[in-house]
Design a protein that fits this description.
The chain is an alpha/beta fold and about 200 residues long. The protein has a single domain, classed as 2-Layer Sandwich (Ribosomal Protein S5, domain 2), CATH 3.30.230. It is built from four helices and eight strands. The protein has a four-stranded mixed β-sheet with strand order 1-2-4-3, covered by helices on one side. The protein has a four-stranded mixed β-sheet with strand order 5-6-8-7. Helix 3 links the parallel strand 7 and strand 8. Helix 1 packs parallel to helix 4. The longest helix is centred in the C-terminal third of the chain and has 19 residues. The protein is globular and about 50 Å long.
């Protein structure tokens, strides 16, 4: 199997991002995460660990205004990197994945379909805190909306009960990572998992 890896650079007036993704954990490279936000770094490390990826991110942005742009754009670039690492095609992968992650008193369910149609359903109770670390936890919906847009992914997130905001965000990341790992599992025969015989990936 060819190495499934990609590097994406995105430069705008709001953010400057370089992201390298190894879909299949690299035996030689390590995670390197530098986003100006310690809590976002923590969540990206969680994503890489539970997805069995290797992830390297250098990202800066107008966080003096609001970290919104930085968090959303890192999500977009991550989604684009997945598409590029797959060779711009959704052929030969399982396509769908789901995982239920229990973290102390919080439960998070994530189901997803790598189908070429971007859609996010976010059934998460309102956050109780203004900040987790130094980040408004509501911004993590924007991260996943960015992933959905960059990857053309359908994603459903449900949190039926929770204990605290940190656990909500982290449990969602862990469930997402494991569901995505399932969806990106290679098929031995390389078939296209579609009754139509085609899945349109976004241009990378």
């Amino acid at each position: 199997m060819l190495a499934r890896t990609a590097t994406i650079e995105r430069v705008t007036k709001e953010t400057q991002i370089k992201l390298t993704l190894f879909v299949d954990k690299s035996p030689t490279e390590e995670n390197r995460l530098n986003t100006q936000s310690p809590f976002l770094n923590h969540m990206l490390n969680t994503l890489a660990t539970h997805g069995r990826f290797t992830l390297q991110v250098d990202a800066t942005g107008d966080v003096d205004v609001d970290p919104h742009h930085l968090i959303e754009d890192v999500g977009i670039v991550f989604g684009q990197a997945v598409v590029k690492a797959l060779g711009g095609s959704f052929k030969g992968i399982e396509r769908a994945g789901c995982f239920r992650f229990a973290m102390d008193g919080t439960l998070a369910d994530v189901a997803l379909d790598v189908c070429g149609r971007g859609n996010i359903v976010w059934n998460v109770p309102p956050f109780e805190s203004a900040f987790v670390g130094t980040v408004d936890p509501r911004l993590f919906r924007e991260f996943f909306k960015g992933v959905v847009d960059g990857l053309a992914l359908t994603m459903h997130v449900n949190v039926p009960y929770r204990d605290n905001d940190h656990h909500v965000v982290e449990a969602i990341f862990k469930a997402f990572a494991r569901a995505l790992n399932q969806a990106l599992t290679p098929l031995p025969d390389g078939e296209m998992m579609s009754t139509k015989g085609t899945l349109e990936a976004p241009k990378c």
